[in-house]
Fold this sequence. Notes:
Layout: H1 6-16, H2 36-46, H3 51-63, H4 68-81, H5 85-90, H6 92-98, H7 113-130, H8 134-147, H9 152-168, H10 190-194, E1 199-204, H11 210-227, E2 231-237, H12 242-253, E3 262-265, H13 272-275, E4 283-288, E5 293-297, H14 302-311
Amino acid sequence: MRASLAAAFLITASVTHAQPPAALSPAPAAADAPSAKTEALETLLSERESDEAFTKVIEEARKQGIKEQAILEARFLYHVDRNEDDAIAALLPEFLKLKDQFKVADSQIFSVQEDWLAVIEYVQAIAALKNGDKISFKEHIKEAFWLSPRQGAAFATHIERMRMEDTMASIKMDFSTRLEPLQGSEAIVPGNLIKDKKALVLHFWNSWSEECTDSMPDFIETAKKLTASDIAVLSLTSAADAKTLADARALQQSLGVNPPGAWALDLKDASLSQTFRVQNMPTVVIISTDGKVLFNGDPSEAAFWNELSKINPAIARPDILLSPHKK
Length: 327
């Protein structure tokens, strides 16, 4: 998995707290185990398995007397780490209600009010983005940067996403492109793959990325699900030299005789990864039957599966992928 976005917010605590938050401070030397409140707080900040598990953790936190401000902070981090923008936007009324009641002593993330206010601006920016209001998004995200530059890495993610969406809106895939196969000699033509299908999913990967190789079993399950649901799949990898080409072929062969989808080389002189501005791997791109980009991003994102369900309502995320943040 890629680096946790929540870490970009949590880093403010490690940078600015001269002492650890009171509820996280070590127990007295005479005690052999942390208090129930400390354990509840640590679990509250780390639970990512499921909504059901997190709800139980919140109930325990309230039972142990953890303040609502800290619980709201934990709920925010939970949804940030799971890339759940709708849920983040839904927290806005609660953040606005507590906006002027922030107490440093009750916080488990922030040590200055500006960091708290920056998160409120961030949540407002996400809500604006969900409503398609790019002007308000820019205003709130700029204010968030101004209030807390330390959290800039978290804010930048959504700016990059908005720019990516704007760029992708102007791109149309050429289905007549002829691609060199990873194995064999017959050219792969995307137009032939998408014929009589509902969409085409491009999967960009490389053999030297540990993240790509570790996530390959998940991708194979995804590809099986998609091909069975009338979605064509095309995996693309670059091969700068003979060794990387051999490694890529070896990895494909390790997947079995006929791994799902088509497998091709992404050559430099006609690079689809450049066309679709791929900066991280693995990346998936959903292409409509008329060549438009419907999604461009990480295959673990909920938005990827949401878009697929719009194309074919029968598509559901395979069980193996239901808890991607637990890896």
